[in-house]
Design a protein that fits this description.
The complex is a heterodimer of chains A (430) and B (296). Chain A is built from 18 helices and 4 strands. With 430 residues, chain A is mainly alpha-helical. In chain A, strands 2-1-3-4 form a 4-stranded mixed β-sheet, sandwiched between helices. In chain A, strand 1, helix 3 and strand 2 form a beta-alpha-beta unit. In chain A, helix 11 runs antiparallel to helix 15. Chain A starts with a helix and ends with a helix. By secondary structure, chain B is of the alpha/beta class. Chain B has 10 helices and 13 strands. In chain B, the strands form 3 sheets. In chain B, strands 5-6-7-3-8-9 form a 6-stranded mixed β-sheet, sandwiched between helices. A 4-stranded antiparallel β-sheet of chain B has the order 11-12-10-13, with helices on one face. In chain B, helix 6 links the parallel strand 6 and strand 7. Chain B is elongated and about 80 Å long. Classes of the chains: A mainly alpha (430), B alpha/beta (296). The interface between A and B is medium-sized, with 21 and 27 residues.
């Protein structure tokens, strides 16, 4: 066993002294984790929906509405001419154009036969349309709430509305009756929900003043429920497991090339002349590859944990996942080394094969964004099982039983590829 | 110490080694002299057990299996290719090779220091091998073969691509080993090296050993006569009694007794403008055995 450690020690020393290799093994995966991590996180926070607001009414109320809408954290609004705004929506530069029509301020957008707010949006973007509709309604009520904090103004406006003959022009009789009934009811509600100025002055507890913030027609209580186990907390919890797999791809390629290099440089001949068996030599290579894979995985994970708060989850489970992934890539390195007889051919083939594994296994694009048929193909990629195992420990909340499948697949692929590689290498030397 | 009998190896339809046999005594420096592609390296690889022979046998110190650990421990091999790790220093390379042969601790340090001195590399021991010259790499390659103090050492073309200074260092190192009583197998296609270093030489060509023996024995058997070529100061009036062929004022004499014939010429009062004596050498031996020059 001592000679296996001697062989492994030599390989590790050679690997870590080669700056070019170290870049692909540690630098490149780290860059990938950081680059995609920042891209997916949007850098300075979540991305906003870009909209244009066209105010054709230009009343105090419509301007207040446009301002309220623009202040929403979910939206990034622009004041643009109608043509320009529509053109930008067509070209995909904006998600939607909101047009506030004339008369909005007079009616407060309510009880009219035609819509006072018009939303121009691509019909295929149903989610965007629905989301916007919710935001517009929310803004409406929010503005009303602010507007009618004063009960006297509330009643005066209701009276104006009731007296506005133009408001009901053309509307069917039943709509007119219903509208007038609602306005009357809303006027009466002010007595019930909005405190009078005198009661605020006489109330030493401040409860009346608090009530004077306005009424909430459709109160919704938001309760914070932190989801501890499912789903990544940040994009880095996705990119760091992926970057580990990129590192392992780099290490497997380097070791595959190093096995061939031993032959072409003649050092393999000297090793075979020493009083050690072929299995010693291969075990030494395998051990060095495993130690490299595991060490680099730990380093990347620790970097992610300390700098980007990537969760470690269950450390034992994570160690098992990383060890099994490392073992799998030792086997792959061994098999890939048999593909060619020169460093160039093995190096090229290694990156070619492993890139396909990374593409199909979710190393480039997360599996959740892939079509069904590609997800089915990904079952053959060791990258998929490696990412799944590590993510399982980090944020998927895997139990030891859940971990059995990815870990079993990794060990299976590892044993198969290692056996095949050793068998081919042995036949070649015979 | 080493007995090779009817050793044979073919690669496809090419017969690389064809029924060769020889014996090397303990403490002897045995040379395999032949052109590139003659079968020298294949023979070496079969002796050390890297290549399995198609026929014949090899015995090292009475043991018929060179792949056994105990036998490998007795063999040191400096392959023709520079079997070194460029990213490691000379000391690290030697430490690694030493550990593979079971050396450790103070013994390892002692042997590494000795091997560095053997390769005249002590001053550059902490530099990466990738920064070494071709000659330094060759010397380190040889040092790696002797790190474990083996009684049998095989040097496969150790002077290929080295400068004259390194070549002389290599010769000195091998002569040191010879004085220590090591058994050495030395392959080369340079007859001067074989003549200087080897006690006995096997002439190998196309996978066959054409003959083997000491330089004296080989030249005696195959070197042919010595050749005296002389240019007279003046053309002799009487050619009778002159040995060899006379052409104008030149005489060419093929003889097994060059000094006696030279004495006869001077005794007759002839004086020479130029005089050249070519003693038979390994080049002549190879030429006479194969019909072509060693460097063809």
């Amino acid at each position: 066993m001592g000679k296996v450690f001697t062989l492994a020690g030599k390989d590790l020393r050679v690997l870590f002294r080669d700056k070019g290799t170290m870049f692909w093994v540690l630098g490149f995966p780290l860059l990938i984790a950081l680059f995609f991590g920042f891209i997916f996180s949007g850098g300075s926070g979540p991305s906003k929906m870009k909209i244009a607001i066209i105010d054709k009414d230009e009343s105090a109320y419509s301007q207040a509405y446009a301002k309220e809408l623009g202040d929403l954290s979910a939206l990034e609004s622009y004041q643009l001419p109608a043509d320009s705004a529509l053109d930008r929506v067509r070209r995909g530069k904006l998600s939607a154009v909101i047009t506030i029509r004339e008369g909005f301020g007079r009616t407060h957008g309510m009880f009219t036969d035609s819509a006072m707010i018009e939303v121009g949006v691509d019909p295929s973007k149903t989610m965007t349309a629905g989301y916007l509709q919710g935001l517009l309604t929310q803004t409406h009520f929010k503005l009303l709430q602010k507007q009618y904090a004063d009960p006297d103004k509330w009643r005066a406006d209701m009276d104006t509305l009731m007296a506005d003959s133009g408001l009901w022009a053309g509307a069917p009789a039943n709509v007119q009756t219903l509208g007038k009934s609602i306005i009357t009811d809303l006027r009466e509600l002010s007595y019930e929900y909005l405190p009078e100025a005198e009661s605020i002055a006489n109330d030493s507890t401040g409860a009346a003043a608090k009530q004077n913030d306005g009424f909430n027609l459709f109160p919704i209580k938001m309760t914070a429920v932190t989801n501890d186990e499912t789903g990544p907390r940040s994009s880095f919890e996705i990119t760091f497991p992926s970057s580990i797999l990129w590192a392992l791809i780099g290490i497997a390629s380097s070791f595959a090339v190093s096995i061939v290099k031993e032959r072409t440089a003649g050092t393999f001949l000297r090793l075979r002349l020493a009083p050690i068996s072929r299995m010693h030599i291969l075990a030494g290579k395998g051990l060095a590859c495993f130690i490299s894979c595991f060490t680099v995985s730990v380093l990347l994970m620790l970097f992610g944990a300390f700098v980007f708060k990537v969760r470690i989850g269950d450390p034992v489970l994570l160690a098992i996942a990383m060890a099994c992934t490392a073992f799998c890539f030792v086997g792959i390195a061994m098999l890939v080394s048999t593909i060619g007889k020169t460093e160039e051919s093995v190096g090229g083939a290694a990156w070619g094969i492993l890139l396909v594994c990374a593409m199909t296994g979710g190393g480039m694009l997360p599996l959740m964004f892939m079509p069904g048929w590609l997800v089915a193909i990904s079952n053959f990629s060791p990258v998929k099982w490696g990412i799944l195992a590590i993510e399982g420990a980090v944020w998927r909340g895997f139990t030891y039983t859940d971990m059995l499948i990815p870990v079993g697949m990794l060990i299976g692929i590892g044993i198969l590829t290692f056996s095949l590689g050793v068998s081919i290498l042995s036949k070649r030397d015979a | 110490m080493i007995t090779v009998e009817n050793l044979k190896k073919t690669f496809g339809h090419i017969c690389a080694v064809d029924n060769i046999s020889f014996t090397i005594k303990k403490g002897e420096v045995f040379g395999l002299l032949g052109p590139n592609g003659a079968g020298k390296t294949t023979t070496i690889n079969m002796i050390v057990g890297i290549l399995k022979p198609d026929g014949g046998s090899v015995e090292i110190d009475g043991n018929p299996d060179p792949t056994k650990s105990s036998v490998r421990q007795k063999i040191g091999n400096a392959p023709q290719a520079l079997a070194l790790y460029g990213e490691l220093t000379a000391r690290e390379n030697l430490e690694f090779f030493g550990k593979l042969y079971g050396l450790s601790g103070a013994k390892l340090k002692e042997r590494v220091d000795w091997a560095l001195e053997f390769g005249r590399l002590t001053e550059r021991q902490k530099d990466k091998v990738a920064t070494y010259s071709g000659g330094m790499k060759r010397r380190l390659n040889m040092a790696g073969a002797v790190i474990h103090d083996p009684p049998v050492i095989l040097f496969d073309e150790p002077t290929v691509g080295v400068d004259p200074q390194s070549r002389n260092m290599i010769f000195d190192s091998i002569e040191d080993l010879k004085k220590q009583g090591r058994t050495i197998v030395y392959t080369t296609h340079y007859m001067e090296e074989a003549e200087r270093l080897c006690d006995r030489i096997a002439i190998i060509d196309n996978g066959k050993i054409l003959d083997n023996g000491s330089v004296r024995e080989l030249t005696k058997r195959h070197g042919g006569p010595a050749i005296i070529e002389a240019e007279f100061e003046s053309i002799p009036e009487d050619f009778s009694g002159l040995p060899g062929k006379v052409d104008d004022n030149w005489v060419r004499i093929e003889t097994n007794r060059p000094m006696e014939d030279l004495a006869r010429l001077t005794k007759n009062g002839h004086t020479f403008r130029q005089l050249k004596i070519n003693q038979p050498n390994l080049e002549m031996v190879f030429l006479n055995l194969t019909g072509r020059s060693l460097r063809d």
